[in-house]
């Protein structure tokens, strides 16, 4: 019998200015060292009594860590949050009465926080339909979103599991080139309670007029009992193109947003074969109204029921009412408020976590399944963000990482300190990753953001505790995104492929 394949090798980035110290932390250590040297130079005990306690305090602020962050980072987060609260920048109210654009005659999109700059464009998909593209003019990116289906890994044999994982790895590796215009891929999955509204609507429109009354009653009883207990899962794949990386191709396609959309559509068509090889079936590339619907249902979970009913009705032959989806100008919330540890939007509350540490031991391909376990009291969403690195940058990053590990190891040997098993493992891992890169493997930056949303505030902490317990069962260490819940919501609860910073920073 074939043994299941296990996976490992995730390595955290060092985001510090020097080592694990941020720029502010390094400044605090420098000032502390100067204060410790000052009494020696002055040869004064009174100066020592004053300077030493202050230096110790500064060192604690710089070196002491709580939940993965140093004290100075916590203080910086708190100050930023309090400034936003004082200026009321943490509160968002929809501009329902905003004036219409003089150029288009329509109201502009009204989204909060970092999403305010996003615009949903419409472009031909090359197959006679319309494609919705989320354009970020600040980052210079264009993102297309597909609703996909995947047969899963749980109920297949080991060889097929390994084949599907290898196909997904090959898909990611295909973007690890210097000239690839695609800079980011993100997989987003939602798990939410389904009350069966769409099922009842579809049945009402498709049941035969001469159906036996006993059969109709039995079907109604079955839907009433099984519908509310069902769980709906939605999976999306977003592909992000960088206008800077694809500058020449965009210019050749006509330039501007039209040229960028044409290049993105071309990349999507070229991607179809690789997606099929990875057992991903593209149900549809989302139109502008469908993209807006995914945003709207994330901000207002109660809208999911009404939209599911209206979409089912729109699919009925002869329907002349509203189209499927949501008008992009209505995608945002009516109101939202960012708290220190929660994000309130319309009639719901969301808490977002970042995966701080991936499993240290060998893990099976299905180790993430507990995270999206169905819950009746909450909806969960998870975004896996991948940023492929080109060969040149990958070589630089891995060489830098390996030299840091080797230098730290040499310093410990010179000072007579023992080397821990964790430190040995990090050195071995850095060397193995560099060897894999030299052998033709790709290097990908990756993170995961998880959000849990409830419509009853009293159930929020219970839902958070369940999320953390399931993460622990998967071998993950989560960190609540304190002071940045609105940014976390945009990354974890929406399938818009919000990216990673140049260097991963703490929240």
Key terms:
17 strands, disordered C terminus, single chain, two-stranded antiparallel sheet, 507 residues, alpha+beta, 13-stranded antiparallel β-sheet
Q: How is this structure best described in words?
A:
InterPro entries: SCO6880-like (IPR049978). This is PrgI family protein. Keywords: Membrane, Plasmid, Transmembrane, Transmembrane helix. It comes from Streptomyces poriferorum. It is a single chain. The protein is an alpha+beta fold and 507 residues long. It has one domain. The protein is built from 14 helices and 17 strands. Strands 4, 5, 6, 7, 8, 9, 10, 11, 12, 13, 15, 16 and 17 form a 13-stranded antiparallel β-sheet that branches. A hairpin with a 5-residue loop joins strand 5 and strand 6. The chain is globular. The C terminus is likely disordered.
């Amino acid at each position: 019998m074939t043994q299941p394949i296990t996976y490992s090798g995730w390595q955290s980035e060092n985001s510090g200015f020097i080592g694990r110290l941020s720029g502010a932390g390094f400044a605090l250590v420098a000032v502390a060292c100067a204060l410790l040297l000052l009494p020696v130079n002055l040869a004064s005990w009174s100066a020592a009594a004053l300077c030493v306690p202050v230096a110790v305090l500064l060192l604690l602020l710089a070196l002491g860590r709580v939940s993965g962050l140093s004290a100075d980072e916590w203080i910086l987060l708190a100050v930023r949050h309090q400034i936003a609260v004082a200026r009321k920048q943490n509160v968002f109210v929809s501009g329902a009465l905003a004036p219409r654009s003089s150029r288009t005659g329509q109201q502009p999109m009204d989204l909060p926080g970092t999403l305010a700059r996003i615009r949903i464009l419409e472009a031909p998909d090359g197959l006679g339909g319309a494609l919705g593209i989320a354009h970020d003019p600040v980052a210079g990116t264009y993102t297309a979103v597909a609703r996909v289906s995947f047969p899963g890994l749980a109920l297949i044999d080991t060889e097929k599991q390994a084949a599907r994982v290898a196909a997904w790895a090959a898909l990611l590796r295909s973007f690890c080139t210097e000239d690839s215009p695609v800079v980011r891929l993100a997989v987003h999955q939602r798990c939410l309670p389904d009350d069966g509204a769409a099922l009842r609507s579809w049945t009402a429109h498709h049941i035969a007029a001469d159906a036996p009354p006993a059969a109709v009653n039995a079907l109604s009883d079955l839907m009433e009992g099984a519908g509310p207990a069902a769980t709906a899962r939605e999976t999306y794949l977003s592909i992000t193109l960088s206008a800077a990386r694809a500058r020449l191709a965009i210019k050749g396609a006509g330039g501007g947003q039209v040229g960028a959309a044409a290049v993105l559509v071309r990349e999507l068509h070229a991607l179809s074969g690789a997606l099929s090889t990875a057992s991903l079936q593209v149900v549809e590339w989302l139109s502008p109204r469908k993209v807006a619907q995914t945003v709207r249902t994330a901000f207002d979970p109660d809208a999911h029921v009404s939209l599911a009913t209206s979409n089912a009705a729109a699919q009925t032959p002869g329907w002349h009412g509203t189209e499927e989806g949501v008008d992009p100008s209505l995608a945002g919330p009516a109101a939202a408020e960012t708290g220190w540890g929660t994000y309130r939007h319309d009639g719901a509350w969301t808490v977002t976590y970042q995966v701080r540490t991936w499993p240290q031991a060998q893990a099976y391909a299905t180790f993430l399944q507990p995270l999206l376990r169905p819950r009746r009291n909450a909806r969960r969403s998870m975004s896996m963000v991948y940023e492929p690195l080109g060969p040149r940058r990958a070589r630089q990053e891995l060489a830098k990482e390996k030299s840091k590990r080797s230098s730290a190891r040499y310093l410990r040997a010179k000072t007579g300190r023992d080397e821990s098993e964790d430190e040995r493992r990090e050195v071995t891992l850095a060397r193995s990753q560099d060897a894999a890169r030299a052998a033709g493997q790709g290097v990908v930056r990756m993170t995961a953001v998880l959000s849990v949303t409830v419509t009853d505030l009293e159930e929020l902490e219970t839902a958070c505790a369940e999320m953390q317990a399931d993460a622990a069962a998967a071998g993950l260490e989560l960190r609540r995104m304190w002071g940045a819940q609105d940014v976390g919501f945009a990354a974890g609860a929406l399938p818009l492929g919000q990216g990673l910073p140049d260097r991963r920073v703490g929240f």
